[in-house]
Structure prediction request, 155 residues.
Amino acid sequence: MKKQLTRYLPIILFCLVLLAINGCRITFVPAYDTQVATQIDETAKTVDKFYLSMLETTTVEDSTRSYALFMDQYVSIEAELNSLFIKNKIRPLNQNSTRICEITLQLWQKYKEEHKKKNKLSNGLIKLNQKTFSDLFYAMQVAESGKKIIDNPPK
Prediction:
């Protein structure tokens, strides 16, 4: 009997270790950062206000949408997006949030250059750009909020 038990002992131990590994999960996610979450919210509001103001106070026809009139706002918002990107990039284990910020920054730069090149922006493009950034900031907010769950898992 003892001989049979020692014969199956490695299999039993292997099964126990396998069960233990499956029962334990290590999560590699950075901690929630209140400052980053606040900056995401503030930058999202700034971008939204930028496009809403452009729609409400200017028209394509009278050249009040020329790039030069919005250059300072473009630069200011790009600086905020750069800041968010860098803050996410330096946080360990934060590749997903970093990638979302990188995409947001690249699109901001692309749309800024298109406005600069054409020197005008249609209502349709403004609404499309606004929606694009709204979705990207939502993704940033969800990614950051998800990190709260690591610190306070549901019971």
Notes: Residues 123-151 form the longest helix (29 residues). The mean pLDDT is 88.
